[in-house]
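I have been asked to look over a protein record a colleague put together. Alongside the sequence sits a line of tokens, each denoting a local backbone shape. I have pasted the whole thing underneath without changing anything:
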Amino acid sequence: MIRALRSATSVALALLGALVVAPVVLAQAGATRPAPVASTSARGAASTSASASASAKASAAALAASSAAADVDESEPPPLPKATKSVAGWRALWDEGAKSNLDLRVAVDEIERAEAATRVAWGGVLPTATGVVTLGYASTSNTLFATVPTGSSLSGDLVVVAPLVHLRNAHAIGTARVGEDVARLSLVDVRRRFALSLSRALLSIAAARRLAEIYRVGLRGALARLELTRARVGIGVGDARDLLRAQQDVASARAAIPGADEALRQAREGLAILFGQTGELDVAGDPSALQAELATFCGAATSGTPRADVAIAKKQVELAQRNVDDVALLFAPTLSARLDLGTLGAPLAGPYANGWSVLGVLTIPLYDGGVRYGEKRDRVALVDESRARALQTEVAVATEGAQARRAIEVAVAAEHAAREARDLARKIDEAQRGAYEVGASGTTNFDVIEAGRSLRQAEGLLVVRELELARARVSLPFVDGSCAGVGAGAP
């Protein structure tokens, strides 16, 4: 550091010495060779003008060199990416989803299982009949368990058991039917959630497509501003910096297109996932047409009907209470009847001895070590849990519905403000471009490009706000459970 300071000090002293010595040398030169003062001033002015001209030429050359070094893609925007498959409209997608959506398939299978459980429950109260045919051979008539003919024998038995009084099995039939109701409501709820996801996926595709188109329009506008700037620079208005700024605007506008295209592809892939498919699945139509189709699908709003998941929670309470009653019925006696029909004789030759018997069986449960009491306590606790979950579901659904209705109001206000901002940005862009074209005073290339950028941002923000408004309006019938099309056609 000390060495650097010494060097700087030496340079400063040298400059100071030059400034001091120069006037003396000039004075001596003037004394030896006198000249008119006016000529000396003229020569100084000419020298200064030549120096300024050389500096301007050097600056212009540097700007021209930097402009020539810029290499910007000025081609037209690429076309929108194509989807591997496209479906026309909401109804076609809904019909396709009913066949290919995996969650819906599982929900339908659950209904099948619930109906099968009901049929099994019926088996506990209906008679059963069992036939047994036995072919045997005995070396002696005296066996360990019974007296049978010597040699080959053929016997046939028919056993019929009929439960006469079995309260627990009869109660199980009603419980199984409640399980069927839960399975059907679960299918409606799955359809509701699938319709909500499907509508949002369609809106996301429409918004992504619109945004990709807007970015392409913005690139065309940037290319037009570049041509205008190049024409202005060509006639001597502006310099290479204006051209570089316009080229930068083109590059920025083009850089937004790949991300928008990828967002469109991902939105299409998200729709394909809902149908258990791979690749991109597109849908024709804009958000307005989609909202009109959904309004027809859902029909008029209905009030007073609880949402499917709320109804399921209430049915779960009923199921829990029935399970408590099921344990209580373990204390009840059962009464059944048994009929035995049998025949015994030599195979094919006979003779056959026939017989029958009828039995009545009364079963009285007395003590099982406390198992029934423990099960009852457990199921009573489950009733309280199911009631708590049902209340929690009701509160959550009510809050979700209020937020969905409020979201429409917020989205309307935000969309209105974004539209006003877009309209103002468009007017400013048109005004700045028109003023720049005619060479209005005070309007520069920077103003034109900045107005174009603001317009692109305002257009993108408006698309986002329109998507939010469309999502809020489309989601409301599914959130509050008032869409009639969800339950139509369900098993």
The chain has a mean pLDDT of 81.
